[in-house]
Specification:
The complex is a heterodimer.
Chain A: E1 4-12, E2 21-28, E3 33-37, H1 44-52, H2 54-57, E4 62-69, E5 72-73, H3 79-82, E6 86-89, H4 102-112, H5 117-130, H6 146-158, E7 164-168, H7 176-188, E8 192-196, E9 209-214, E10 217-223, H8 224-234, E11 254-265, E12 268-279, E13 283-287, H9 294-302, E14 309-314, E15 318-321, H10 334-339, H11 346-355, H12 371-383, E16 389-393, H13 401-413, E17 419-423, H14 427-433, E18 436-439
Parallel strand pairs in A: 3-8, 3-9, 6-7, 7-8, 13-17, 13-18, 15-16, 16-17
Antiparallel strand pairs in A: 1-2, 1-4, 4-5, 9-10, 11-12, 11-14
Chain B: H1 3-19, H2 23-37, H3 42-66, E1 73-80, E2 84-89, H4 90-116, H5 119-125, H6 130-140, H7 142-159, H8 166-171, H9 174-194, H10 212-230
Antiparallel strand pairs in B: 1-2
The chains are: A alpha/beta, B mainly alpha.
């Protein structure tokens, strides 16, 4: 008997004309691992929310059809009552943390679903150990890196030992090793898993079945082998690719030279004796495990952080695009947001918006844009300044493969005009965009260039 | 120390400041709370201390102009519509100092609660009104979260070569900060619902038992309220 059954589900969010899901039907068997693929805005997250009962209970909107999970009709069962049978890991780990310390955070769900008090501590310890974060149990969540926080959120859902595990881009901030572990852990937990991903290479190896959504429709529902053949024929950007990173040879004429830099946040040493050169006309990718100081080194290169020790020589203007840049938009019109970097020059701003495919969006409020559109708006907001050094921190987080290819093409096409440093865990993207790739190893042994 | 009796002690001191009738008593309570707050790391405590002192000073500066107490006039100004004649008396200054110190003491008690207590353990420790305590704990996190978001916004703008300077520049960040915190609140509410929040039959992690320090803190909190009401 199916664990979850979706019958002719159609759903539109309040105030939205277009249906987010349109006549969707599927079944999920116990223990099955289903990969949910599709471009940004195709309805993947909405389908996961429907399986968790959050659609329609939390979001409202127009709902037709039927969703049944673990024998409960979600129209008549609140999401909180489904919790325990169903566990959901959301896209943004920063936005789902309730408590300030790791152990309390993992215990939260267990307390809510009525786990006996004596069992809570051992289950928390077990879940933290499973995701390799037992040593973080007493740490404040505010001190964790994005990757560490994502592991904690994964531990929080694994601790519930659910029958159905819903993972919405669970590996967006994890390095490759961490991502493979996360999918494997979900599989080993014995639950049925529905996992939405923008990096198909991270799930296609582990899944039993693939669903591909477009504009709210399921256009593919097939076993893995059949799905791979279909993707190769119809959506080649989604086929897992080999990531062959270029080497780390010397830079041509350096635009930015970071030499023997050390940096600490308070008493936490993040960089020690790190060096890096980025030459004009090249794209350099900075890869490495979570917590190895990639972002800190990038900020030092861009001039946002002053190193405690060492020197930074930079020729010309540097611009830095932070992780999750869509969160940091300040104006009420898209063109004004972009024009900030060029002293209000709206003509240049509109040209930059066209360059990232946002022509026609000039008057839109940045917060009304989808997450993918916000990311492109933020990219336009730095590209407009025509910097000599462009630093992008995880620019493909939450971006689908087709958009990634477009971004790689854009960076390659403009590479000759500047020096570009891209911090990324996405090795496929790194391979597509890089002239050179340098890697951080644990901070105490950083030896780059 | 367990956070529940520590919170009770701080609440007792705040109540004593509100009940006390002598300026010197309120000043002593404010000083004591300031010393407690100084145990927090300097970068974290700065915003709370500035908030406490600015609000107390604000009351001290404004209230003499709107109050009409006393007859020892120190300064006499023009007559304004609604407010009437502006003047400052010695008695008004005394009342303003007293009320300013009261507000400062209460704000410092909150600052100590926000900076030094483990809110997770506080939520886990309470045996009643858990939802209310969790709501207060989440609200307490608003200040550091906004601080972090503001730092992120400033860094993001600096990354584009835009410097945020002066009061006007910072004031422009208020609207995006509020919009961002509303988005964050919605996402958090959704995540909490998905994790079973509000479902009947919840349990709690085992609570550590109280020792002598916890009992002493609770007794001192109660004593502070009594002293404030009867003697200070």
């Amino acid at each position: 008997m199916a664990l979850a059954r979706v019958e002719r589900l159609s759903f539109a969010y309040p105030e939205s004309v277009r249906a987010a899901l349109d006549d969707v039907s599927l079944e999920v068997e116990p223990g099955e691992v289903v990969a949910l693929l599709g471009p940004s805005g195709c309805g993947k997250s909405t389908l996961l929310r429907a399986l968790a009962g959050l659609v329609p209970h939390f979001h409202g909107g127009r709902f037709a059809g039927r969703v049944e999970v673990a024998g409960h009709d979600t129209r008549h069962t609140r999401p909180a009552e489904l919790a325990g049978s169903v566990a959901t890991l959301f896209q943004d780990p920063e936005d789902q943390v309730v408590f300030t310390r790791v152990a309390a955070e993992v215990a939260f769900g267990l307390e809510n679903v009525g786990t006996p008090s004596a069992r809570i501590g051992p289950r928390v310890a077990q879940a933290l150990a499973a995701v390799g974060t037992a040593h973080l149990a007493a740490r404040p969540v505010a001190e964790l890196s994005g990757g560490e926080l994502q592991r904690i959120c994964l531990a929080s859902v694994l601790a519930l030992e659910p029958q159905l595990l819903l993972l919405d881009e669970p590996t967006s901030q994890l390095d490759l090793e961490g991502a493979e572990e996360a999918i494997e852990l979900a599989k080993v937990a014995g639950a049925a898993v529905v996992v939405s991903e923008q990096r198909p290479d991270r799930v296609l190896g582990a899944c039993d079945r693939v669903l591909f959504l477009e504009r709210g429709h399921i256009v593919l529902d097939a076993r893995r082998e059949e799905a791979l053949a279909w993707l190769a024929r119809h959506r080649p950007a989604w086929v897992p690719r080999q990531a062959l990173l270029p080497g780390s040879g010397p830079a041509p004429v350096p635009c930015c030279r970071v030499e023997h830099v050390s940096f600490s946040y308070g008493e936490t040493h993040v960089l020690e004796d790190a060096s890096l050169e980025i030459g004009r006309g090249e794209v350099v990718t900075l890869v490495g495990p979570n917590g190895s100081g990639k972002t800190t080194l990038a900020k030092v290169a861009a001039g946002l952080l002053e190193p405690n020790v060492g020197s930074v020589d930079r020729n010309g203007r540097a611009c830095y695009l932070s992780q999750d840049p869509g969160r940091y938009l300040v104006r009420e019109r898209a063109d004004e947001e972009v024009a900030l970097a060029v002293r209000g020059d709206l003509a240049r701003a509109r040209e930059a918006l066209r360059g990232v495919g946002l022509a026609g969006f000039e008057a839109r409020h940045p917060r009304d844009l989808s997450s993918g559109e916000r990311e492109r708006l933020a990219l336009a907001a730095v590209l407009v300044a025509e910097p000599d050094l462009l630093v992008l921190d995880e620019p493909t987080r939450g971006v689908d493969p087709e958009r990634k290819d477009e971004l790689a093409a854009l960076l390659r096409a403009q590479a000759h005009t500047r020096a570009t440093l891209v911090v990324t865990n996405d090795l496929v993207f790194a391979a597509a965009v890089a002239d050179r790739s340098v890697s951080t190893v644990p901070a105490r042994e950083v030896a780059l260039v | 120390m367990s956070p529940a009796p520590a919170a009770a002690l701080l609440a007792g001191l705040a109540a004593a400041a509100l009940l006390a009738e002598r300026t010197i008593s309120v000043a002593a309570i404010a000083l004591l709370l300031l010393l407690v707050c100084l145990r927090a790391p300097a970068p974290r405590r700065r915003l709370y201390l500035v908030g406490a002192f600015v609000s107390g000073f604000g009351v001290f500066v404004v209230s003499p102009f709107v109050a009409t107490v006393g007859w020892h006039v120190l300064w006499s100004g023009p007559t304004l519509p609604v407010l009437g004649r502006l003047d400052v008396t010695r008695e008004e200054l005394h009342v303003a100092l007293f009320q300013g110190l009261r507000l400062t003491a209460v704000a410092l008690a909150f600052a100590a609660y926000a900076l030094l207590l483990d809110h997770d353990r506080l939520v886990q420790a309470v045996g009643f009104a858990r939802r209310s305590v969790l709501a207060i704990a989440l609200a307490t996190r608003l200040v550091p979260t906004l601080e972090r978001d503001a730092a992120g916004l400033v860094e993001s703008l600096r990354g584009r070569g835009v410097e945020v300077a002066g009061l006007r520049g910072r004031a422009r960040l208020v609207s995006p900060l509020l919009a961002g915190s509303l988005e964050r609140a919605l996402n958090l509410a959704e995540a909490m619902e998905a994790r079973g929040y509000g479902r009947p039959g919840g349990t709690r992690s085992p609570r550590p038992s109280w020792g002598g320090r916890e009992r002493l803190a609770l007794a001192l909190g109660t004593l502070a309220v009594l002293l404030g009401a009867l003697w200070l």
